[in-house]
Design brief:
Elements: H1 6-22, E1 29-34, E2 37-43, H2 46-49, H3 56-69, E3 82-88, H4 92-100, E4 105-110, E5 135-137, H5 142-160
Parallel strand pairs: 3-4, 4-5
Antiparallel strand pairs: 1-2, 1-3
Helix pairs in contact: 1-5
Length: 161
């Protein structure tokens, strides 16, 4: 089976980010891939759900864990051999969840210089003190991811004037 390029799945994550943008949420999208198939899709829903933990990555990981454990007695929802694609570098909460679910790899678009926990200000996914490390590939379609975030915050600032 031929591997599918990272850009293909990042485009799907960007579609989710656009859904967040359209809903008035910070435009972050995520998909989880297992065996070269998308098994979960999500976008930020913190405002919609009135839940500060409703990050795209958290929702996608929950969906993926459920999908992988369905019909598998004893499966604890591990994301081993799965890859999470996110348009923005995950925060400490999401990076911790990547480690706890034993997700194999993370591919993200643009770095988060304020809350990034996968290499920018923290590196939770590579911390040797934790029981699992996540392979991280940053910068895939970074410009597209960054542009959507910049447009969102530019519009938000104009509305607040």
């Amino acid at each position: 089976m031929q591997p599918i390029p990272h850009e293909h799945f990042m485009k799907e994550a960007l579609k989710q980010a656009q859904r967040a943008f359209d809903a008035g949420e910070i435009p972050v999208g995520a998909v989880v891939v297992f065996d070269n198939k998308i098994i979960a899709r999500a976008f930020n829903q913190m405002e919609t759900l009135h839940d500060p933990t409703a990050h795209a990555e958290m929702i996608a990981m929950t969906q993926a864990s459920e999908a992988l454990s369905r019909g598998q007695e004893g499966h604890r929802g591990s994301l081993e051999k799965a890859t999470l694609y996110a348009t923005l570098e995950p925060c400490p909460m999401c990076a911790g969840a990547l480690v706890m679910t034993k997700c194999s790899s993370l591919v993200y678009g643009t770095e988060d210089p304020r809350a990034g926990a996968c290499g920018s200000i923290l590196n939770v996914t590579q911390d040797d003190r934790l029981n699992h490390r996540v392979q991280v590939l940053p910068g895939v379609m970074a410009m597209e991811s960054r542009s959507l975030l910049q447009e969102f915050f530019r519009t938000l600032r104009k509305e607040r004037r």
